[in-house]
Amino acid sequence: MRASRRRFSTQAGAGARGWRRILLAGLWLLLIALPQAAAAATVSVVQIQGAIGPGTAAYVSRAIERAGAAGRELVILEMDTPGGLDQSMRQIIKAILASPVPVAAYVAPSGARAASAGTYILYASHVAAMAPGTNLGAATPVQIGGSPPPAAAPPQPAGSAAPGRDERAPADASTRKQINDAVAYLRGLAQMRGRNVEWAERAVRESVSLPAAEALAMGVIDLVAADRAALLKQLHGREVDARGVRRALQTEGAQQVQDEPDWRARLLSVITDPSVALILMMIGVYGLFFEFSNPGWGVPGVLGGICLLLALYALQLLPVNYAGIALILLGLAFMIAEAFSPSFGIVGIGGVVAFTVGAVILMDTEAPGFGIPLPLIVALGATSLLVIAGIGAMAARARRRPVVTGDQALSGALARVLPDEPAGQWALIEGERWRIESDVPLAPGQRVRVVERRGLVLRVAPVDGASPPGLEERTS
């Protein structure tokens, strides 16, 4: 009886220990799996709003790098852009192609667009998606250099065209090079992602556009989603190839992390606005001018130096016309020269004209969002003209004022004769003792007027009666 009880208790203890081992093993596996599940369920959201420039390129590139370092499941580029600079667009595409984390370009919200550079970014992404009511396309590169594209040739009679010649091709060699380069670039991206290659070429050569539904039907994009939640739900389980690694996305119910631009990207976005760069250049030049003309203030020189360096840094990132920069600097130099040596306004007005023309031709691109508004240029020119007019008016008033220093200031000044001294007679003029001479005898305390100065001696004459109107005695 006792033996059977011992066997039962031994078996019960072994069973309990077995269950404890199983429970501990399950808890251990759960603890290991939870962090991995949490990490796999996080996606980064990067918003591209407005024209694509150096600031946008820096922001998107760093955001993709941070997503790769954090091991995010996906990066969503939420776009609404009219296009931008070619160099900035290519920097973003390079970051997408080198990313170990899949990138989904998503044109949203409804009413948004991915035109020009946005179309290239959409084609380069691992997943291309659009919200209903959005569009993409118009990917023809804009004219660089300021001259308009040549007019299209008149239609030729049937059979007269040379075989193999594209009648839609522009006649200008430079424009053909730009368009052929853009076509090859977009076709390569379309082939890499398995998207519609023929429409990609039409988007460049003919500037065609597509709404979301037609883009999906023609194989230009991969899916249409009403919002981010619907996008993540449709992407769940989808296989993508990110830098040679095939993986299935686990995005259903994923946590969304908004990736905001850091201070460097914000600063770059502000100063690379052509209007801001032009204003910074003006502040910089005028600040240095006021510092050099009034040494010792410090603030205008420091502020001017900082603004000028920021402007030059921003301009070297932008497609600028160096003739425009030269005209702007020449105009500012003329305006400063007018302040130092007034020339009846001729040099100053010439400076304003040179500045205005330089600002008009400053930007060497027609990319949307990178032009300088004409009203701003006119306002800056008018402000400079007012500054010149104000300096000229102050100079004219200063010339009409009476002289208060030197021999001219002493001539006609009133003095009071001091008591006689063995060395001769002296008078007190504006708190200073001067030796005086006169053709008539003078009594101590008598008022006299300075006639002229001879070295360190003043010739004076007695003042008879009251002082003339407006002439006050300047003695202490």
From TrEMBL:
Domain NfeD1b N-terminal: start-end pairs: 43-147
Record region (Disordered): 141-176
Listed transmembrane segments: 267-289, 320-337, 344-362, 374-396
Biased composition (Pro residues): 147-157
Signal peptide start and end residues: none
Domain NfeD integral membrane: 276-388
Matches recorded under InterPro entries: ClpP/crotonase-like_dom_sf, Membrane_assoc_protease, NA-bd_OB-fold, NfeD-like_C, NfeD1b_N, NfeD_membrane
Sequence ranges assigned to domain NfeD-like C-terminal in this UniProt record: 409-462
Compositional bias of kind Basic and acidic residues: 164-176
Subcellular location(s) per record: Membrane
Keyword set, alphabetical order: Membrane, Transmembrane, Transmembrane helix
Parts forming coiled coils: none
Protein name: Nodulation protein NfeD
Record-linked Pfam families: NfeD, NfeD1b_N, NfeD_membrane
Main location, first listed in the record: membrane
Membrane topology according to the record: Multi-pass membrane protein
